[in-house]
Amino acid sequence: MKDFTAKFEESLPENFFKTTFQDLARKGAELMLRLALETEIKDFIEGHCAKKMPDGRQRIVRNGYHPERRIQTGIGDVSVKVPRSRDQEWTDDNKEQILYQSQMIPKYLRRSENIEDFLPFLYLHGVSSTRFSDVLSQLVGKPVSFSPGSLNRLKEAWEQEYQKWKCQDMTKKRYVYWWVDGIYFNIRLKEEKSCVFVILGATADGQKELVAMDIGYRESEMTWHDILIDLKQRGLSVGPSLAIGDGALGFWNALEKEYPSTVQQRCWVHRTRNILDKLPKSLQSQAKKDIHEIYQSPTKQDALKAFDRFVKVYEAKYPKAVACLLKTKDQTLAFYEFPAEHWRHIRSTNVIESAFSTVRLRTYKTRGCCKEESILPLVFKLVDSASQRWQKLHSSNIIPLVLKGVKYQDGVSVDKDKTEELKVA
Q1: Cα–Cα distance between 402 and 415 in angstroms, integer?
Q2: CA angle, 341 as apex, 337 and 347 as ends, to 5°?
Q3: Using CB atoms within 10 A as the burial measure, which of 2, 8, 94, 347 is most buried?
Q4: Which tens digits make up the pLDDT trace of 344-376?
Q5: Helix axes of 281-295 and 268-276: crossing angle, nearest 10 degrees
Q6: How far apart, in whole angstroms, are the C-alpha atoms of residue 153 and residue 94?
Q7: Model pTM score
Q8: Rounded to an integer, what distance in angstroms lies between the CA atom of residue 155 and that of residue 129?
Q9: Among 222, 198, 250, which residue's Cα sits nearest to residue 386?
Q10: Is 198 in a helix, a strand, or coil?
């Protein structure tokens, strides 16, 4: 690190610091990038130093630079010259050519990923493709040329990425939890809102990832059934230990048919919202506290007592609110059979709500944001970009215990011997 810092300081041009902050950042980025590329190709050549020509000369050597190109970044255009190597033993008959390919600057890169990520956001936000140049110019601080044809090519690339993801092999996949919901969008030239069916899953190491996504109508059990069958056909033979979702989804009937061993948990956020809608505003604040007391109880027995208190207080005057609370009562308390460390994640679909907050934000006030055939690749691109910032589940180290079938009561393992045995294994 000291050598790298010294090289960087030696490379600073005269009057480097007598410039604007943006120019300073751009020049600094160019210097750091140049030094990093030099280090990268040096490591590449040293890694092949054992390969020799018949006459003893080094087979892999430096070969100057590729032509200089400019890459659009969030701090302006950055000039870069990628080093080049030469395989001196390679001929047209020998197809095992060894060439240096920079991992930092992929071939043909003209725009950094942070600029690339702006494009789906702008498009989904309703910005006309004819105004992309104006918007991007404001972002990077100088004129940026961006043609509508470039957006069409990007949309084609997103479509290819989505189709590849949609057909991926699921044989080695295993999920401990699923969060399920329907996300509504305004589709151009359609009176009714289309719903994107979403399944978000937690893997054995606690990482959240998109499991499935399709378009249809929220109450459609048929669409959910098709989604689950597709997952099975691609190799996902074992369903999650627990699935969390809104009680109104047709998903539950489809789940019972395809993954009957999966435990069902109804979302308390949706349930609370539905109950409060059936109460006068003057009572909603207190009723909300009473509902929180139910699912935030430390034990299932305490939760059942809180259930009874709510019924006693509200049943006489507000039977619809009480009926909504008692609907699928057992499914609202299923989380007590899982580790208490995960309750914050599995009592509601907040995980999926948070993951899709960016998508919701950019479509809430947009009318006719795109056509139906292009919404899925676009949403997939947004989710794929956002997933880089998703955090793992808390206490993910105990997920293997859940997957191995360790039983929990009130969030605590009731099979201590099996738990210790699996931890040792």
Answers
A1: 12
A2: 60
A3: 347
A4: 999 999 888 877 766 665 555 444 445 666 678
A5: 150
A6: 35
A7: 0.68
A8: 12
A9: 198
A10: strand
